[in-house]
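sorry for the late reply, my laptop died twice this morning and i had to redo everyting from scratch. anyway the thing you sent over, i finally got around to it. pasting the sequence first so we're on the same page, its 191 residues, then the predicted structure underneath. double check i copied it right bc i was rushing
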Amino acid sequence: MEVKFCMNCGAEMETRDIDGTLRRACTVCSFVHWGNYSIGVGALVMNEGKILLVRRAQEPGKGRWTNPGGYIEQHELISDTIEREVMEEASVEAKVARLVAVRDLPRSIHNVYIAFEMEYIGGTPQPDGVEVDAAGFYSLEEMASMPVADFTKWLIDVALNSEGEGLLADKEPIVKMEGYGLFRTPAEPQR
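ok and here's the structure:
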């Protein structure tokens, strides 16, 4: 779908060469439509050696087992999003432990997916009955006979077989930046 009117001032848009790429730009103000993007997040929550999975009740992937996840809201930190999504989809409380994977999927709406290993805090898995119709903790052996989505299989492998601490939330950055969600590789020990 082509952007016809400026999201900033409402004026008509035109196609213009901007830095060698044809983009939709406002004919009145400086607004440029840089493209369509979506950012998704996913959770890998382990409890007693089992991984939290939910069964999709809607397309895409209806009937497939996946890790809980969803799309970020405009004014929500990514870490808040994934904690909310785990609670909404599975009634499980979990906190971000580390960032373990990023998927980049360019297409008409360019999708970026950020996966977090989560610390299980509590709760018994219960599906929301809308997006998911089943939820539970499953072992790798149990998953072998379940229709687990390929991408979820990959994420589980990454979380279980990655070395190092991944990207950790920087809870005490050298400069306070309110409203930022900051993640970094672990700092080297001081000598």
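The radius of gyration is 20 Å.
thats about all i looked at so far, will dig more tmrw
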